[in-house]
Amino acid sequence: MVEAALGFGGNLGDPVARFGAALQALARHPRITVATRSSVYATQPWGNTEQPEFANMAAIVRTTMPAAELLSFCLLIETEAGRKRLEQWGPRTLDIDILTYGEASIAVPGLSVPHPHLTERAFVLVPLAEIAPQLRVGGRTIAALRDAIDTRGVRRDVFATARLATLFVP
Prior knowledge:
Number of strands: 10
Order of helices and strands: EHEEEHEEEHEEHEH
Strand content: 25-35%
Mean pLDDT: 91
Distance between the termini: 18 Å
Number of helices: 5
Largest sheet: 6 strands, antiparallel
Low-confidence stretches: none
Radius of gyration: 15 Å
Shape: globular
Structural class: alpha+beta
């Protein structure tokens, strides 16, 4: 069993409903257990900043799936949520990234773990630090990585978090 950290994001339609559906899909898979999830955070866009605000969250899952198989399953969930990859860092209905996969370092076409931008992105580090502050990446804890960057554009969305709690109960 491997513990993997997943990052979720979206800014089109109803991202919180999609987060709930994605967590349900992960939890229904016989080789995945959703161990915990973070609050939902409202965040400023990254990369292409001329788009609506994002909702982001993180989850820890336990799985017996190899990382590539977990990625394929996450991509299937994205597709079922209406994800179309039209623009890098552009608007999306749902994005699920594998942030970490145990202690593995993976660099193959289509899959890089730890996620290559993990240490730069407050919208990833803030939710992940909520649920796994002592998780280590590159010799540093997620909490230390979060504390080393500007997190002012990330705020906990209490209403979205409460709504997600009604959509997904582990």
